[in-house]
Amino acid sequence: MRFNGTAVIWLEDDWFVATCVENNVASQGKTMDTAMENLKEALALYYEDNVVPQYGTRYIAPLELAI
């Protein structure tokens, strides 16, 4: 089975943080590629004992809010 999700990556101090929007699983790495690979590994472990959800079309849009 395959999981198709959405990852968000940002730079925090000297680390890239990658998180999966659908389930809040996160990981980090010194490079963006390493952060993504670590996130994939974390997701594989997460779904080892959980049901893999199937999502329809997702839309990603920037959001700006004055606070």
Q: Gist?
A:
By secondary structure, this protein is of the alpha+beta class. It has 1 helix and 3 strands, in the order βββα.
What is the succession of H and E elements?
EEEH
Number of strands: 3
Order of strands side by side in the largest beta sheet?
Answer: 1-2-3
Q: What is the CA-based Rg, rounded?
A: 13 Å
Distance between the termini: 42 Å
Helix/strand/pairing category: alpha+beta
Provide the low-confidence segments as ranges: none
Helix content: 10-25%
- Approximately how much beta-strand content do the residues carry? 15-25%
Number of helices: 1
Provide the residue-averaged pLDDT: 90
How many strands, which pairing sense, and closed or not: the largest β-sheet? 3 strands, antiparallel
User: What characteristic shape results from the CA principal axes?
Assistant: flat
Explain what the structure shows:
The protein is an alpha+beta fold and 67 residues long. The protein has a domain at 7-46. Helix content is 22%, strand content 24%. It has one helix at 32-46, and strands at residues 7-12, 15-20, 26-29. Strands 1-2-3 form a three-stranded antiparallel β-sheet, with helices on one face. Strand 1 (7-12) and strand 2 form a beta hairpin. The radius of gyration is 13 Å and the shape is flat. The model has no long low-confidence stretch (mean pLDDT 90).
